[in-house]
Structure to design on (164 residues):
């Protein structure tokens, strides 16, 4: 009987592992939706993630890495992101970047999930680079616009702004 239970547990674990593996293969999609590498008033750099799927995604063990020339700043993640949810995470207060960084997102097994184009910004204003609209991912620089910061919430879109 005990053997049987272990077998069931093993099967359940394998099924769960397969589900997690699907995430790595693009079955669930988290993107770097907005980033502030040139904050105003000596503020802290931050990155916003967006879950483009209709299911929550477990991001335990995932890592954001800000790469700015030879410098790298890793931000370790935990928890999960709700369906169509946003999550903003801060870098360390001491971090000062040139504003010309690239933001990478890796899953728990170290697979690259997303990478932003390099966008220069040394204005130290409330403006940030964000996907327009949220989650737009054609792997080109045009995915991102330079607009007012919307940390932890929708970046809006041209159509939305017109409606307001
Ligand atoms: Ca800024
Ligand atoms: Ca935003």
């Amino acid at each position: 009987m005990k053997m049987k239970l272990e077998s069931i547990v093993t099967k359940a674990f394998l099924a769960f592992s397969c589900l997690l593996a699907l995430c790595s293969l693009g079955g669930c999609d988290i993107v770097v939706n907005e980033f502030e590498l040139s904050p105003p008033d000596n503020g802290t750099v931050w990155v916003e993630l967006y879950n483009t799927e209709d299911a929550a995604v477990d991001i335990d063990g995932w890592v954001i890495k800000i790469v700015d020339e030879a410098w790298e700043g890793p931000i370790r993640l935990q928890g999960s992101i709700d369906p169509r949810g946003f999550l903003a995470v801060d870098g360390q207060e001491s971090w000062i970047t040139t504003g010309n960084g690239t933001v990478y997102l890796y899953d728990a097994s170290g697979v690259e999930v997303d990478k932003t184009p390099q966008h220069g910004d040394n204005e130290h204003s409330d403006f940030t680079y964000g996907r327009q609209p949220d989650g737009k991912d054609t792997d080109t620089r045009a995915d991102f616009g330079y607009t007012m910061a919307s940390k932890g919430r929708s970046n809006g879109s041209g159509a939305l702004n017109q409606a307001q």
